[in-house]
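Project standup — Tuesday

K.O.: blocked on the structure for the chain from last sprint. Re-posting the sequence here as requested.
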Amino acid sequence: MTVTPVAAALARFRASGSPWAELPFFADGAAERVAERVDARIASGAHVLPDPGNIFRALALTPPDSVKVVILGQDPYPTPGDANGLAFSYVGTGRLPASLKVILAEVAPGRPGSGDLTPWARQGVLLLNSALTVEAGKSGAHLRYGWARLTDEAVAAVSARPEPAAFLLWGAQARGRAVLIDGERHCVIESGHPSPLNRARDFPGSDPFGRANAWLETRGLAPIEWRL
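H.V.: unblocked you, prediction finished:
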């Protein structure tokens, strides 16, 4: 019998009644095709991350009408136990990933109490990766599996809402989605990627969190509590 945990996770997400499930990605069979492809890798012995129950967690925790800020990542951490379905969020037991350490240094100096970004998601920060799955030890393994269409549609859907939102676009891949955003109604804050490998070093000092909060407050919205 073929094991289909991703298809099962997709079915549970649909059954949850999430408004995100109304996106074309979920309505025209694209989601099923991606799930089938990922499940085929699992059936062949690949260790797919995160746990199936966390694949759609970013969408589950931050419904469309609650989004205040959008942060886009690439794909989950490829080390078992590190990812929990939210872009950049870390729940492992080792040192913080290098990019996350740089990100949190912009929030406050010193060592953060946690790398788990769930509190951000619960406040309306959509932490969405371009690929919702990855394979252990193989960063980027599922970037071409079709997940990117979901990310594009989610960004466009938030942009189309009447409510304002701030989009924090870090690095070339995220910044490429600026064309999907109505920059006159929403706040678009672009910078280089927080990775230490970014030679331009144009993320440190860019203050994306303070700028986003200031913009939200001018629209009468409560700021995000970024400190963990």
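K.O.: great, moving the ticket to review. The chain has one domain: 5-218. The longest strand covers residues 69-73.
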